[in-house]
Amino acid sequence: MNSSIQIGKIMGIPIKLHITFLLIIPVFGYIFANNPPSFGFSDVEQLLLRYVLGLSVAILLFACVLLHELGHSYVAKKHGSNIQGITLFLFGGVSSLEDIPRNPKIEFKMALAGPAVSLLIGSTLIIFYGILEAYISMGNPDSPMSNPFLRLVWMMGLINVTLSIFNLLPAFPMDGGRVLRAVLAGRMSYLKATRTAAYVGKMFAIFLGIFGFLTVPGGVWFMLIAFFIYIGASEEEKSTQVSVTLEGMKIRDIMSRDVTSVPFGMSVEELVDFMFKHKHMGYPVVDGTEIKGIVTFTDVQNVPREERKIINVSNIMTKEIITLKEDDDAVKALKIMTTNNIGRIIIIQDKKMIGIVSRTDLLRSVQLLE
Questions:
Q1: Catalytic site residue from 69, 107, 236, 237
Q2: 196-226 per-residue burial string, b: 16 or more CB within 10 A, e: under 16
Q3: Beta bridge partners of 94
Q4: What angle do CA 79, 84, 90 make, to 5 degrees?
Q5: Among 39, 56, 65, 174, which is disulfide-ready with 93 (CB 3.0 to 4.6 Å)?
Q6: pLDDT confidence of residue 141
Q7: In angstroms, rounded to a whole number, what is the distance separating the alpha carbons of residues 136 and 259?
């Protein structure tokens, strides 16, 4: 099941909304609508207007997060990186790059681009609010903050400045963590720089989590953010370690040449028995010598048990086959698996299947090489 929906493209980059984003927008709208006037609209008497303003802040917040991510993406594209998409989710946005540049100077520029966009937006809105405040205050004893629309401008300015500062904290996976890695990578190996930056990120997450625990119930959000930071730092360290370890290796060095395939007309029930016997979770599907697709245990799980006798493998297999050649880099296989969320890739030569490489093959190679 796809947990994100694409709503359009900007600069050729797919923009997606994660299901958590769609769930959190009304929550944020409610919070802003009922927050005190210092940072909300609880003083607005018209109920409809109050919630429209609250929802507007929530939507504008994520629009600014999108602009933040587009700042990263613009610099990345300028230096030749391919952006596969930007996804807005519960805790903000994520730009999916095909490959993080190893050049510290480029990564430094990319990391700073997002906070720079947020700071520019925030500063502009605060200055604009200041100008309006001075104009409205002339001969008017009421505070400009009593005007909910001006308050919205002030809130968005403050939110963007805060977003910029928070993202510059030197903790993976935030932008400050990438800035720290870029600086360290100029003095040590890229892998060691990543480990150091990830360690800083995890320590920051632990302290943030403790602070959140001590300030419950208000600190629940800090605990969730701490969890996100810790997982993000760990995943960044792990993925970098795998990529660096696999550098220089070709697919022919790690692929399995003895490929077990299943026939086009096999029933799903027979496939389950076949999987149990051969202990693999995915197989190429063939019709004679021709590759027709690939079938996995995930495909099997989508078929009700009582229908497995009458449904064939050909009905549930994935027909869009992703293939590579044995001379391709092992790192390329890892990137494709990660991007497409698949566990194995068929290796072909002269239109014939000569092997298969799985995520397990890649991880086993990393363990042996470490």
A1: 69
A2: bbbebbbebbeebbeebeeeeeebeebbebb
A3: 87
A4: 115
A5: 65
A6: 60
A7: 76
Collapsing DSSP to helix, strand or coil, 280 comes out as coil
What one-letter code names the amino acid at 45?
E
How would you classify the pairing of strands 92-97 and 83-89?
antiparallel
Distance CA 43, CA 146 (A): 9
Contacts of residue 123, Cβ cutoff 8 Å, sequence gap at least 6: 157, 161
Active site (annotated) includes residue 69: yes
DSSP 267: B
Residues 6+ apart with CB under 8 A from 196: 180, 181, 184, 188
From-to residues of CATH 3.10.580.10 in the chain: 251-369
pLDDT tens digits for 321-342?
A: 889 999 998 888 888 887 777 8
Q: How far apart are CA 23 and CA 149, in angstroms?
A: 25
CATH architecture of 251-369: Roll (3.10)
Strand partners, 93: 88
Distances (CA, A) of 108 to 93, 201, 224: 19, 17, 27
pTM score, two decimals?
Answer: 0.76
What is the H or E stretch that residue 328 is in?
none
Sort 2 into a burial class: Cβ within 10 Å, 0-12 / 13-18 / 19+.
exposed
Task: Specify the residue for token string 């519960």.
Answer: 90
Q: Parallel, antiparallel, or unpaired: how do β-strands 13-18 and 344-349 relate?
A: unpaired
* 121-147 per-position pLDDT tens digit: 999 999 998 888 777 766 666 655 678
Residue range 80-115, pLDDT digits in tens: 888 888 888 776 777 777 677 778 899 899 999 999
